Structures are given as C-alpha cells and as structure tokens.
Amino acid sequence: MLIRIKGAISNCYLLLGERPVLVDTGAPGDLKRILAGLKAHGLAPADLALILLTHGHSNHAGCAAELQRRSGVHVALHVGDAELARTGHNGVLAPQDILGRVLRPFVDEPFEPFEPGLLFRDGFSLEPYGVKGRVLATPGHTAGSASVVLASGEAIIGDVLRGSFVWPNKSRPHWFCRDPESNTRSIVRLAREGLLRCHPGVFGSFPGTELGQYLRTDTGEVMALSGEPV
Ligand SMILES: [Zn+2]
Predict the structure, then answer these.
(1) What is the CATH classification number for the domain harbouring 85?
(2) I need a surface site. Which of 51, 137, 211, 228 has the fewest CB within 10 A?
(3) Per-residue confidence of the chain (230 residues) as pLDDT tens digits?
C-alpha cells in the first residue's frame, strides 16, 4: 500500500509492504508532518526498514539527516546526488519557465547535510526491505534522480514530472530541470514500464498514460516509440 504524506511544498510517500519504507523526507520543517503521517499508521521512525530519496533537493532531503538519526536506518540516495546531500545545497536549479524563476528564491533553501548510508545506481531492489519494487535511475531533473517502480504498477517519480495544481489526473513539466534531454529519456524509460499510476513529488498523482501524453505533446511521439536507447 502506498500512502501520501503531504509536506509544505512536496510529497513524501510511505510504502507499507512487509516492512515500511519512507520515500522522501520533505523540506526542512516538515518533520512534524512526517512523524504524524507515520504515527497515523502506528509507526515511529525506528520501525522503518529504509528511507529512500528520489533525489537530493532540499524539499525531498530536508529532514533526511534528522530521520536517519531517529530511525537508525540508512538513507538511500542515487550516487549522482551524493554531493547535494553532503553539502546540503540544491546545486543548480535551472528554471524551465517564468514560474520557475519566480519560485526559485522561495524553494532554493539549504538543508542539514548528511552522509547517505546507502548509495545506489540503477535497478536497486527494495525486496530486502520488504517492498516489492525496484528503483530506476531517471536522471535529468538532477543527475541522481531516481524513481521507485512498484510491482503493483505504481511508481513514485520524484520531480521527473509534477502533478497539476488545477486538474486532477494531469501531469505537467516540473519548474526546474538540470538536463531536459536526459529527463525526456527518463520519461521514455518510465513510459515503457507500462505504469498504471505515477506519484510525483509535487501535487497529485496521474495515470501512467500521461507519460506518453507528455512525450506526444512536448517532444514528439517518434522518440517514445522509436526504440531509441535510454
Ligand atoms: Zn527537485
């Protein structure tokens, strides 16, 4: 089962498998919200099998240091974002539109640095942590962005795309992207997974078909269907 825990500006997710796994840790200041979200399911940080970050931005890694201390479990992060965790900074936040430029000063805050207890690359399995799923490298938004693909057909995709503030079940490009071409290849990769539902880092979830929709409307259907290597 997948539970959304809403932070101030982004989502965390609680995966209730044989053992619980927390995906993302909100922004600095979201600790109370996360603890309340765990408590609502009878859990404390020490009950977690793993804490996993979709990437190393402050609104996803904001409480990672504190939760790593409180839980005593590893915080897992793709090796490509290890430097962000170690420095407690977002690195380059490249706005993709006017709203991104407006938002940047408000979201580009530092967070408590930490050493990730577990650095992974691609295809990291969550089975040893009691969750049927794996973690795919989906770089672009950051160098070390990753997505959790569950056996249920759901995926937690971090900031590969965002949800819509206005429309339920719709996706939108995220306001920030380090490497748009790489991000598009990551969307192609996720589209090929045939996902039922995507759970983004910002706003609400949308059906997996939105990935193909995004590729058609913004970068052309050819890339999605041509078998281009990802
Ligand atoms: Zn981000």
Answers:
(1) 3.60.15.10
(2) 228
(3) 999 999 999 999 999 999 999 999 999 999 999 999 999 999 999 999 999 999 999 999 999 999 999 999 999 999 999 999 999 999 989 999 999 999 998 889 999 999 999 999 999 999 999 999 999 999 999 999 999 999 999 999 999 999 999 999 999 999 999 999 999 999 999 999 999 999 999 999 999 999 988 887 655 554 544 445 44
222 in a domain, yes or no?
no
Listed residues: CB within 5 A of ion ligand 1: 57, 159
> Residues 74, 118: contact at Cβ < 8 Å?
yes
Residue 185 lies in a domain: yes
CA 61 – ligand 1 centroid, Å:
9
Distance 191 CA to ligand 1 centre (A): 20
CA of 155 to the centre of ligand 1 (A): 16
Q: Among positive and negative, which fits the CA dihedral 121, 10, 85, 100? A: positive
User: In this structure, are residues 68 and 117 in contact, taking their beta carbons and an 8 Å threshold?
Assistant: yes
Overall domain count for the chain: 1
Q: What are the structure tokens assigned to 165, written together? A: 């503030």
Output the six-digit token pair for 203.
Answer: 């706003």
The pTM of this model reads 0.94
In a domain, 100, yes or no: yes
